[in-house]
Amino acid sequence: MTIRTCIVDDEPLARERIRTLLSGEPDIEVVGESGDGPAAVATIRAARPDLLFLDVQMPGSDGFGVLQALEAEIPRAVIFVTAYDQYALQAFEVHALDYLLKPFSSRRFHRALQRARAELLRQAEGDVHERILSLIEQFRHPRRPERIVVRSVGRVSFLRIDEIDWVEAEGNYVRLHTGAASYLLRETMKGIEAKLDPDRFIRIHRSTIVNTDRIKELQPLFHGEYAVILRDGTRLTASRGPENKIRRLVDAGL
Fold first, then answer.
1. How far apart are CA 243 and CA 34, in angstroms?
2. What is the rounded distance in angstroms from the CA atom of residue 207 to the CA atom of residue 197?
3. What percent of the chain lies above the pLDDT cut of 90?
4. Which of 40, 42, 68 minimizes the C-alpha distance to 54?
């Protein structure tokens, strides 16, 4: 079986490396390359590849936007290739087959390629229609991630969002508190707030977000402020500013 393959990356050297790694694979035929989002959509529609190596950050549209534009024309196997590990969970949530974090080794690349071969063989033996419909449905009704990738020296942690007790701003980072542990994540408060379920997590201060399931008690202070006491005894302050959404808990009778 010949695997028709497209390479999409805005860095020419990155495309060249993938092309070189594929050159020794007799069952791989590179049928198209692109360096930006709109061109990628056009190339993929024209070439109809089985396998797609797809960069995340590109001019015009990111990799997720490319897949959304393709809808039912999404290749049967997609491998994301990027220098930014914060996209890992999002990649898997749109049913990507694998995720290569630059710089990757030849061994890691060929492991991903072998997974692609196995997946394409599995699909050839079955019906892929349901998978394509699932992809389209995922884009039409995107879900918030269930986990957050936290990278520290020598390790990558996958933190379940329901484990988070509260979040605080810390310079150019946010600190995620989970019981006795905490994790530092390079993210803005606005960015992390967008990833959290607003029915569970509320902003109580410009630098604080809290999981409402962890709140034990609210104590009114002065001028509309509240002390927020968590079940583990942590004491936080809800400001009186517009970012404080604690009032809706009070109104709901918490």
1. 43
2. 17
3. 39
4. 40
The contacts of residue 246 (CB under 8 Å, 6+ apart) are: 202, 204, 218, 226, 228, 238
Assign domain 3-140 to its CATH superfamily: Response regulator (3.40.50.2300)
From the CB of residue 104, how many other CB atoms can be counted at a distance below 10 Å? 16
Q: What angle do CA 13, 16, 17 make, to 5 degrees?
A: 90
Which CATH number among 2.40.50.1020, 2.60.120.10, 2.60.420.10, 3.50.50.60 corresponds to the domain 147-251?
A: 2.40.50.1020
- Number of residues in the chain: 254
- Please answer whether residues 34 and 69 qualify as being in contact, where contact means their C-beta atoms are separated by less than 8 angstroms: no
Q: What is the pLDDT of residues 200-213, one digit of tens each?
A: 898 888 899 999 99
Nearest Cα to Cα of residue 34 among 65, 51, 17, 59: 59
CB-based contact 203:209 (threshold 8 Å): yes
pLDDT tens for 90-134 read: 555 555 778 888 888 999 999 999 989 988 888 776 555 555 556
